[in-house]
Amino acid sequence: MKAGQAAIKKGLAVSAAVTAVLDAGAAPCVTLVEKVEQHPSELEHDGMNPVAHCLAMNNGSQCGYCSVGFVMNMSEFITNNPKATKKEIEDAFDGNLCRCTGYRSIMTGMKTFASDWSAADEANRMKCLADGQSASQLPGTVEIPFPKAARGRAQPVQATGDRQAWVTPLSLAELASLMQANRDKTLRLVHGNTSFGIYTTEYPTTRMFVDIRLIPELGGRAVIGKDELVIGAGNTYNDLLELTGAELQRRGPSATALVAIHYMARRTAGRIVRNAASLGGNTMLVLKHIAGNEDPFPSDLFTTLVAVGAVIEYVKRTWPSFSVA
Questions:
Q1: CB-CB contact of 301 with 260 (8 Å)
Q2: Residue among 278, 277, 274, 248 at smallest CA distance from 261
Q3: pLDDT per residue as tens digits for the range 14-66
Q4: Which CATH topology does 157-325 take?
Q5: Does an H or E element contain 88, and which?
Q6: Fold of 50-136
Q7: Based on the number of CB atoms within 10 Å of its own CB, is 9 exposed (0-12), middle (13-18) or buried (19 or more)?
Q8: Are 191 and 281 in contact (CB under 8 A)?
Q9: How far apart (Å, rounded) are the C-alpha atoms in residues 215 and 144?
Q10: DSSP H helical segments within 155-194, as ranges?
């Protein structure tokens, strides 16, 4: 059997198209197969994703179910935040779950990318002993494929189906006219669309989805005054966190209202959801489900905004004009 095993190893090493076959009691032989999947060697490709490589080399792969999410999140985060600290990297994963409870090893692998990763951190790291196959998978650079044709500004989309339609107004005036003209239909204003997984029964009955992401009056830069902060409803949770974080750096912890808002916004959902969820969307979900027999939408941030005396500006429609109240 030793000779047969040697022949098998040699046959596989010589050609991927040669498969060794060993029958019980028979001499080893080889057979040719017509088609073999191509597996480039470490000398033929740019290397595997370094985030995935660090995850594996720090015993963070576990069962693998959550690995793709961690790798995707970290690849984006480190690309946009190349000087991130260990604390910032840890905070970026508040929305990623691992059912194997392997967070220590996962976070160790991710924190090796940190700007403040030290020699002491490296000395205390529990290293993974790589086998031959793992060692041959050399890490490359983080590359996020993004077709050039898709890198332009978002364009409005109009679509109509059998019973539903999707429209994209480009101004508050156009939105108001659209809602007035379709007031006999069930409309749903869409921004981040993060409520889809919560109120699933509301979507089939909607006749018109109105995409409000491209309305400039709802987004844009915030207005910062001495005693006030005005921010558009179309801004996301992470936009709010960046804004309040910068203001707290400037004003200090004595700005207790900002401290409360920043604290609660930081503890709402996870970073991935906060990248999409809008302040106006969160507010309207609370107001829509605040009464009646429907399931309420609990919002820590909305509660905080009420506590600090926040005021909502809204569009008051008086056909054929509208005003902000």
A1: no
A2: 248
A3: 333 333 444 444 444 444 445 444 444 444 556 788 999 999 889 898 888 99
A4: 3.30.465
A5: helix 86-91
A6: DNA polymerase; domain 1 (1.10.150)
A7: exposed
A8: yes
A9: 28
A10: 172-181
